[in-house]
Amino acid sequence: MTDIDTLIANTIREDVRAGHSYKVPDASGYIKLDAMENPYALPADLRDELARTLADAVLNRYPVPSYSTLKQKICAKLGVPAGYDVILGNGSDEIISIVATACARQDKRAVILAPTPAFVMFQRSAQFAGMDYVGVPLQEDFSLDMPAMLAAIAEHKPALVFLAYPNNPTGNLFAEEDVVAIIEALGETGIAVVDEAYQPFARTSFMARLPEFPNMVVMRTLSKLGLAGIRLGYLAAAPALLDQFDKVRPPYNINVLTQVAAEFALDHLDVLDAQAASLNDARTALAQAMAALPGVTVYPSSANFITVRVPDADKTCATLFAEKVMIKNLSKMHVLLANCIRVTVSTPEENSVFLNALKASL
Ligand code: PMP
The domain containing residue 286 runs over which residues? Predict the structure, then answer.
């Protein structure tokens, strides 16, 4: 009989065996403030209309492989400049992996560089693609350490630099001139991926500047805007670069239901934008309320979450958990995040449950 452990040792690569899967805690029964989702559903009349549209989706066929209607709609409605196009991913997670796969080399270890703490998939995708990952610590106020970034770029010559704008898990926007200096420092040797997952809340973007920087690409997602369940990310870039990324994209990676739902949502973007605007108001209120609490440091956020430092993050998370509120404890993620927690901005009701539990934990 085959021993399964021997089989695994003989087949699965060592770093995968030593690693762990992306952990997502089960949140049933909890107020879920750990994953930067939009708490609002589409209004009932739009959901009915969407259901009728989905009923007509052609499920017995593969998707139309070019996705041209959806792509055109994204370009037209989401500010992709003329002459530029998008590639689609099953969430921007898949796009990170596509870009890494395209840049990983067989003759030497290519490098992904990112300021840290950063979105964890930058590092994981580098590892899985067989690339080296270089993390350059942010400064204590979570701004970019520009001398360190420029030195690391000169030393490691990264093929890819990921800059989340705003950054996750810190919530802040990096200074625009710093981002530009990094793009310029990379020149012809590296691609800067500006990850604008939280752009609906930041209300600022590098998208319009694509023509200025041939080595910059802009990645976004519909997840934070209110469609996390359909898994759709996109990357805007010059067609010549997109052609390369498209070669490693799995065929039919966007399913028909996602395609139909995304096209529908883009026709009703005003509804999602209004939800984002109200979450931005709620963010201001929540940040102010937390800042008034003793021992709590609130970091500036341009996203739909807020990162705060509390006296004892483990205790705060345990109290919130007991009150059925799920947030993210960032403490062990990075030295800069000691005793930091991250909370998604939600409805006024959920924010107030969170706030009361936070107060109780202090
Ligand atoms: N980029 C950043 C900065 C993120 O925080 C996230 C999700 N938390 C993603 C990309 C991935 O988003 P998705 O796969 O849902 O598009």
Answer: 4-43+270-361
